[in-house]
Design brief:
The chain crosses the membrane at residues 20-38, 45-63, 75-94. Keywords: Endoplasmic reticulum, Membrane, Transmembrane, Transmembrane helix. It is a multi-pass membrane protein. Belongs to the jagunal family. The chain is α+β, with helices and mostly antiparallel strands. It has one domain (5-99). The protein is 66% helix and 14% strand. The chain is built from 3 helices and 3 strands, in the order H-H-H-E-E-E.
Amino acid sequence: MVVDSRYTKVTKEKSRLRLLILVQAVIYIIGLSCAFVTRTKEDERNTLGIASTAFGLVCSLIGELGCRRSKVNLLRLYLAASTLVMLLLVFCAVRSRLTMEMESIQSWSFTVLVCKQRVIVVAMVS
């Protein structure tokens, strides 16, 4: 049976898109686990980061459904929602970067850079 080259190209691109959506979903799962681990000031969770990452995971599922069923409207919804999720995640990253704190431990004369209750850099202060 002879298959037109256009159809083989569409099949190759669909499989490539499915792989990219799968990679994006894995990245969202990693981001979701990191968002649960990190905390902001006063021991509260980063709810905007968690919600946007979970929404991104749902968007990946929508993209997978759109790719499987060749539904253009689902793929457009996936594209718009994925863009919104990325903007929210960039906003969360910038906001968390701005809330980084500098703490000095005077007795040991070390400077400790703390980002969301994790020690990032330890340096001697002269």
